[in-house]
Known about the structure:
The strands form 2 sheets. Strands 1-6-5-4 form a 4-stranded antiparallel beta sheet. A 3-stranded antiparallel beta sheet has the order 3-2-7. It is globular. The chain contains 2 helices and 7 strands. By secondary structure, it is α+β, with helices and mostly antiparallel strands. It is 14% helix and 35% strand. It has one domain (23-97). Residues 33, 35-36, 38, 54-56, 58-59 line the site of zinc ion.
Amino acid sequence: xxxxxxxxxxxxxxxxxxxxxxxxxxxxxxxxxxxxxxxxxxxxxxxxxxxxxxxxxxxxxxxxxxxxxxxxxxxxxxxxxxxxxxxxxxxxxxxxxxxxxxxxxx
Length: 106
Ligand SMILES: [Zn+2]
């Protein structure tokens, strides 16, 4: 059995609830499986939706309770082969997801 690696990052979705509503994200984090090219979007995950794997199950998303952190859970990314992680503009994410981008009211 291959050894699994794991990294933990905070849930942006939880932090979003604590900031004022005029806050607009500018970028979105993409976790791309280098094996099946499946793309996982960081904003799609939160405490209620925190278990997911890419098509080939190389990259798996999970969570565990955080202690001494400003958010209740850590998001964990488990993988056999390291995925690519990079930022895309928030507008691009909205287009991919077919959702309306939150916009600042002038
Ligand atoms: Zn994959």
